[in-house]
Each structure stands twice: as C-alpha cells, then as structure tokens.
Amino acid sequence: MSPRLQLDVLNPSTGDIIETLCADSLESATQKLATAHKTYQDASQRLPVHQRIAWLTQIAEQLAEQQESFAQTIATEGGKPLKDARVEAARAVAGIHTAIHYLHQNDGTQYPLTDTQSQAPRRAMSSAFPIGPVLAFSAFNHPLNLIVHQVIPALAAGCPCVIKPAPDTPLSCLNFVKLMWQVGVPKHYIDVVITADLNIAQALIDNLTEGFFSFIGSAKVGWQLRAKLNPGVRCALEHGGIAPSVVTESADLKRAIPDIVKGAFYHAGQVCVSTQRLYVHSSRQQEVLQQLVEATQQLHICDARDPKTDVGPLIRSKEVTRLTEWIEEAKNNQCEVVLGGKAINAHFFEPTILLNPDKNLKVSQAEVFGPVLCIYTYEHLEEAIQQANDTPFAFQASVYSHNIQQIEQCYQQLNAAAVMVNEHTAFRDDAMPFAGLKHSGLGIGGIPYTIDDMQFQKMQIWKHTQ
C-alpha cells in the first residue's frame, strides 16, 4: 500500500498547523482531469443555460450567508487582515452575480447577411458553446476570490473544471467547491486537486489535451507552463507587476497619501498590482516622504485575525528571509531606508519605504511581493514615465494630479493595461478587464471576459428555400 499523502496547512501569522489534508496522488489527480474530459466529450451532459443560472444563484445565496465564515478562513490560512478578508468574501458574492447577469445578457448573436444579392437568401446566427475542460491553477493571495474568478466562469460557460488551489491556501477553495456540490453542481463538473507536488502539476498539464488552462501566479512559472501546453489548448496567464504610480506637482496629498499607503501595504504588498514604485516630483519630495512615513507608522501590524490589523504576515517564513536579502542588497548599494527595512520575526516584515534605489536592483526591477514602497525623484514627467516603463512588466499604473495634460500624458505613455487617476494601482472591479502585458500575463481577466475565453461561438447559417 502506498503511503498516505498529506498537506499541512499553516497559519502564516503564527506558523501553527491549522489542518492536515489528504493530498492527491498522481493517479487521483489525473483521474479527476480525465473525468472532466469525459464529461465534456459527452454531449448529453451539456448544461443548459437555465440550469447554470439556477446553480449560480443558489451558490451566491449560500456564499452570502456564509461570508463571515469564509472571511475567517481567508484571514487564518492566507494571512490577509480580517477587515480585508471580509471585503474579499463580499466581492466573491458580487462576482457570482456578475456572471449571472452576463448569462442573462449574452445568449447568442444574429448576423445580417444582406450586403450582396447572393447573401440575401441566408440567415446567420451564433450561440456560445463550452470550449472544453478547464484546468485552473490558483494563487494564495486572494484564496476565495481568485477561485471564484476561475471556477465560476467555467460553470457559467458550461465547462467541467478541475481547480488546483495554492498549497498554502487550499481551505477556502475546498469550502467553496463543497458549497457548489451542496447546491447540486455534480462532482464531475467541478473537482479539486490538492497537491504541492510540482510533478503532479506538470502531469495535469501534460494530460490536458483540449479546452482551457487558467493560471494565476508567478511569471516565471506561468510562462514555463504555457510552453508545455498541448497544441490546441487555450490559456490565460495572470502574473504580477511592479506597479508604478506618479505624483505630479499638482497632486492633492491629503487624498493621495492614504491611497498610496493602501496600495503599497494592502495584504503586506502581496498583490499583483500593489504599488511598488512611486515617482514623485522633486518639488513635493519632502512633504510626500514626511506624510508617507507618518501615515505608515499608524498601520497596525498584527495577527491577521485581529479586526484592527492593517498589515499581516508574509505567506511563508522564507519570504521574510528573501525580503531581508533584497533590502540588504539595496542598503549595500547606497539606498536610503526611510522607514522599516527589517524583519519583525519569522512571519512579519516591517512596512518599508526606500528612497531612490538604483534602477538595476531587485527592488526596482522585480516584483517584491512584500510591504516595500520604493520612491524615486524626478524633475520632468517624461523622465518619470521613461523610468516607470523600463521593466519587462506592465499591468496597472496610476497618476496623482490635477493637471489634465499631465494626466493624459501618463495615460497615453505609461506601459499599462489600466491607468488609475487619483486612485491607487491595486484598484479593481471584478467586471472590468484585468490584463497583464509583456511579462505580466496573457489574455484578459475579469469574470465576463473569462467566460468569453472559456467559450467559442458556433455559427448556424440557414439558406432559405422556396
């Protein structure tokens, strides 16, 4: 008998084991994907739209009733401050309603064929069909809402789905999928693979022969997995960025400073569009620094389950070690540490502000994914934009200004799929397009766009006969 595979789920605030789960073997993981393939290939098991809407409605109702329980789980396994975990749970409910609304509004298209006499006796229309089984790999930093962004579009599109949550945060995913089963969604339409074994993850990729691969995680891993996909498998990759924000001479700091602090230190900076680089006009540098330090010092750093916590732990102790090494590299290269810069313990890192780090350092060129804000001084806006664009990543950016021309210049010239105006870089609404460019991703996220990705339009053309 083969040994039982287990996965310990840890509380990142303390390092304690929350729960020990049975993990999937290679055989059980690939069997779940094979079941999804078989389900898709059996046309008699296709889900009518009214059934999908009914299930989605029940899922939203049940999740709304259990929001607090899910928020507590998010905070405990993911280290996200409870106040933010509650927002995430509410967003998950709203995201399901977005999918329901989309299904009500998108049931097919009719195309007029009247351009020429030869087309006139014909009528063309299309309907949306599921693209195939969906294999989804998710990330730890939004352990419920990211699952919703992958699983709910799959169900809305009518695609069987196998989801592999991040091994750090599998409980939110498991609880959500169990909720889906309880309202009647068949297990052959949604199942979970629990594993931290990279060989099993690779085997799932190898066995996905049609359909769609959804990945949320690091750029390095995402691009590697995409290169190994079988021909014909479509995919979407959502990676990270090192989001830039520009503060011009006319910025209203009373409003900008709280925004920037939230964008930089929300979830201890473990957000793919966290504000990492702040470009400040030289005329505002001193007051920006002073106000940022004062605001950051007011943040409550504690166990994520404490309702007062603003900044929680990093997801793993090794991330604290990595971040310490990156800050030491910056200090050794004459970077000024304005605030923080040290580990608090094995789980927490001080919110850190760096001034003018060299552009070639890791903190300037790679995704920190920690509570670190780098400030760079500029004289001319063109200089700030050029520096902001000088990375292989491009996702979301922002500008704080009341100068319309400068706002428009930033919108036109910043390498980003979205530019926020007087708003931090981490803003997102789940119905809007959410896309990383360059190394930051492939395809367009957001629930309606993901539903589209997981479907194809099948045409039906009628020729009228006399």
Descriptive account of the structure:
The chain is α/β, with parallel strands linked by helices and 466 residues long. The protein has 2 domains: 6-239 and 440-463, Aldehyde Dehydrogenase, Chain A, domain 1; 243-421, Aldehyde Dehydrogenase, Chain A, domain 2 (3-Layer(aba) Sandwich), CATH 3.40.309.10. The chain has 15 helices and 20 strands. The chain has a 7-stranded mixed beta sheet with strand order 12-13-14-11-10-16-17, sandwiched between helices. A 6-stranded mixed beta sheet has the order 7-6-5-8-9-19, sandwiched between helices. Strands 3-4-20 form a 3-stranded antiparallel beta sheet. The longest helix is centred in the first third of the chain and has 24 residues, at 82-105. The protein is globular, with a radius of gyration of 24 Å. The N and C termini lie far apart (71 Å).
Short recap of the structure:
This protein is of the alpha/beta class. The chain has helices at residues 26-41, 49-65, 67-78, 82-105, 145-157, 170-182, 198-207, 219-227, 253-265, 285-297, 317-332, 362-365, 381-389, 404-413, 447-453; strands spanning 6-10, 17-22, 109-111, 122-130, 134-137, 161-164, 190-192, 212-216, 234-238, 243-247, 275-281, 336-339, 352-355, 372-378, 393-394, 396-400, 418-421, 437-438, 441-442, 455-463.
| Content of β-strand | 15-25%
What would you report as the Rg, rounded to the nearest angstrom? Answer: 24 Å
What assembly state would you assign to the polypeptide chains in this entry? single chain
Q: Which descriptor suits the 3D outline? A: globular
Question: In the residues, how many domains can be counted?
Answer: 2
* Widest beta sheet: strand line-up: 12-13-14-11-10-16-17
Q: What would the average pLDDT be, to the nearest integer?
A: 95
> If you consult CATH, what is the topology of the largest domain?
Aldehyde Dehydrogenase, Chain A, domain 1
Helix content: 25-40%
User: How does CATH name the architecture of the largest domain?
Assistant: 3-Layer(aba) Sandwich
Number of E-type strands: 20
The first-to-last residue Cα distance is 71 Å
The major β-sheet equals: 7 strands, mixed
Q: Name the structural class.
A: alpha/beta
Number of helices: 15
Reading off the top of the CATH hierarchy, the class of the largest domain is best stated as Alpha Beta
User: What is the name of the CATH superfamily of the largest domain?
Assistant: Aldehyde Dehydrogenase, Chain A, domain 1
Query: Which stretches are low in confidence, meaning pLDDT under 50 for 5 or more residues running?
Result: none
